[in-house]
Write a structure and sequence with these properties.
five-stranded mixed beta sheet; alpha+beta; elongated; two-stranded antiparallel sheet
Amino acid sequence: AWRVHENSIAYCLLVFLRPPPGHSFSLELDTMGQLPARHSSIRVVLECMCSREQLLADTLCFLHHPNDKLLRDRSSSLLRTLCTRSYLDVEKIACWVQLLVRSAWLLLPQSHHCQLTVLPSSWSCRFQLTGTSKVNICTEMIFAVQQ
């Protein structure tokens, strides 16, 4: 979605997160067995990749090759970055995406003409671009998962 005001433009982007290979997302039901409406707990679950391993030979199964230290460390690092215990942590995801956007912004030629400001938010990523034209561009990235 987007909207235009006198000297500002606001964008709202819905960003769907996908689990890394060998993992899946599981939305936990509430105490009544129903899907919660908002701010639900999303568990990151280890999946068996044995059939893909046998067919394509492009990955090892995290579940059945627990002794492969390199893969386990890489998976653990990603989970520590984005999760608290075994659950997605939206605040950690927001911080991680903010770091990625800041780093990528510095590589763009526009970074010499516009200023990128990270705006405070714990449930999404909000950025403001201010350039020489005095038009403010505000972008909000909201995270979601798909079953």
